[in-house]
Amino acid sequence: MRHLARLCLTVFVALSISLTAGCAALRAVQDHPLAARLAVEQTTLRWIGDDLHRAERTREVIAEVRPHIEGSATVATLDQAARSAIRWDSLSLADQRLLETLLDELKQELERRIGAGLLDPDQQMTVAAVLDWIDAAAQDAQRFLEQRALLVGSGTIPATYPATAR
Length: 166
Known about the structure:
Keywords: Signal. The protein is an all-alpha fold. The protein contains 7 helices and no strands. The two termini are 26 Å apart. Mean pLDDT is 73; it is low at 17-23.
């Protein structure tokens, strides 16, 4: 579950970067969409690795956070969505305190930069695009890992299939 906390923090940080950069982030996505998407997808796929549960949980977290960017999204609602998606009881006390401190600092910095008001439509579009890319990468990983699990279970390939043979 420590990885879930990292994912939530990563999603919140990614959203925060998009928000703090404002139009610059939107312009970067518009000007270099392939590079931006590739970076997001690779980060997501590397985090998931060979863990089917991580792929599934990543998609669940995205689904939990997504409604908070539409309509009346604020830094506070995004912060609360990220905090709600974290299974705090599965973390050590040290990890809980570290994550709480990081989220508190991040929220304060975002509110200082963009205020506590609503996200504008450009910021919402940028955040939605990043969430879509994360979800698509997690879905691809989920399909790949499910297919590989079927092959391993059928005896077609050995259960100790080397990761470098992908």
